[in-house]
Structure formats: C-alpha cells, structure tokens
Amino acid sequence: MKVLITGGAGYIGSTIASVLLDNGHTPVILDSFVTGRREFVKDRIFYEADIADRAMVRRVFSDHPDIQGTIHCAALIVVPESVSRPYDYYRENVVKSMEFFKALADLGYPKVVFSSSAAIYDVVPGFMVTEDSPLLPLSPYSRTKFMMEMILKDFCAAYGMQGIALRYFNPIGSDPQMRTGLHIQHPSHLIGKLVEVSQGRESVFNLTGVEWPTRDGSGIRDYLHVWDLALAHLKAIENFDKAISEGSEDEVDFTVINLGTGKGVTVKEFLVAFENVVGKQLPVSNQPPRPGDVAGAYANADKAKRLLGWKAEKSIEEGIADALKWGEVRNTIIHY
User: Fold this and answer.
1) CATH, range 1-336
2) Hey, which residues are catalytic here?
3) Is the pTM of this model over 0.85?
C-alpha cells in the first residue's frame, strides 16, 4: 500500500514512515522543512513543498495515483511558542490544513488519518479521559488541533471525505533502530530536557508546575513510546474501513481515537524512572508552570484496541532507554 505522509521529515512522521516501510508499505513524504530534517527522508520518496501548495499536492497524486490514504502530521507543535506566536500557529496548522483537506477532496483522495492531540481535553476527575470526555483546549496550539478536527469532520460531512483523528498523548523514545528520533536542538518537552541534562548539555532540569491537584503536585501524563504510536498509524491505515464503519457517529464518516498506554504517570514519577534507567540523580529546580500548561490527562485506550486492534506494548523504561541512545547518536546522523 502507498501512503502519503505530510510532515514525514519530522520526529513522528519519519517514525511512521519507518513503520510503514518495515511492514511492506510505501510512504510518500511531503514536507516543507519548517521543522523537519532532510536526513530523515534520505532514500525515501520525497517532495519538498508546503501542504497548501495545491500544484505540488496535485503533482504528488499525479505521480502516485495509487496512494490509498493520507497521514497528516504536518504542524507546529510547541505549546509555549504558540502562546507568543498565535498567528503562525493558526496560519500553519488551521488555514493550511483546510486548504490541504479541500485539495484531497477535489482530487478524489478522501481517506485521512489526522494527528490530533490529547491537549484538547479538559481536566477531569481522576484525569483519565475517553473520546467522549469534555474538551477544553487552553493554548493556541491545542485550539488549532481542535479546529483541525472540526474542519475535517465538516469536510467529511460535506465533501465525501473519511477521517480518523488520532489523539496523541505524550510520545517518548525514538525509532529502536536509531534511523530517526527527536531532532530539535533545544527541546521544550520533558524527555528531551531530561536527556539534555543527563548528557551534560543542560545544567539543571526545570520541573515546571509542582502545585497541580495530582497525587504529588506535578503534572500527570500518558507517556507513549513513539514506535507504538507509529504502529497505531499502521493499524489505522490497514484497518481504515473497519474503523470508519464501526466508529463513526452522526452519519458522518469521521471518528476520534485516543492513543495512549492507559496509565497515568506524574512528572516526578517519570523523573524517578529516568534516573533509574540512567543510573544517577539529576539536578532539579522547581519552577512555575509554562504558559499554556495544564494538570494533564491520561488515556482510556479501549477504542483503539476495539477499532484498530492496537495497544501500547513498550514500557516507559524502553522509551527512556531509546531516547538516551538517540541522544548519543543524534549528532552523527543530523548535521546542524
């Protein structure tokens, strides 16, 4: 099967491409390199273009008319940055995705797997959310993901498209074969910061937010190995028709699916696990929450198992170990 991946030169998109290749499928990658890496598309079918470039999107499908589905990963994703640069986030994520979805509809390629986010959920008692839990996106980033879901659903109703929105929780780790991994030089999220501190590139780990209403005051998350996350996209593409027929509601060919482990882990608990894997304690400084931060949530992932036949298999410790290994080899693969 041939599958288009937008943002396929990024952390998650490139891992999805590797999973597809390893399972006998052919990824076709579209990326503009706003954040992606050329090193991640080496020896892969690749087009350098913006998703809103209709001429290039037409060319991709003209060159590869046998594409059977699209995985849409392209987006800006840094929460604090979205607070200071909301225009860029709404333009890149919402406006351009709308143009891209309409191009897919016009060209007759209606099947879309969309990279959404658990950041759109409201905080609920107990912190575990199902796909029906209340939504309350609190940052420009999370609001763009919510809007993109709504646009895709409306396009499915109006233009005969079919959409699966996969709501990611918190990816960690890297491709276990070390082909790709987190490529940002100065990461803002938890695992990237811990790796930077453990390998001496940062002096202290800033624990942002220690007064949340959780069991230890730190935020609670659902940490999912990026390889498991990528495998879920494989399952979504391979089981697309089943997921749409059994998961859709309101007579619209659209469904949302949580991707997580089903286990809530606080930041302090994750820090302990990280220190156990790395074999040393890290210097820690408690800090106030960053702009746009929330207490957090973790997934009820029953729907993913029912519709996709998928569940997370890898442990937090495996994700940490792969992230550390990637941190050691990254600069031999990526040339900044």
Assistant:
1) 3.40.50.720
2) 141
3) yes
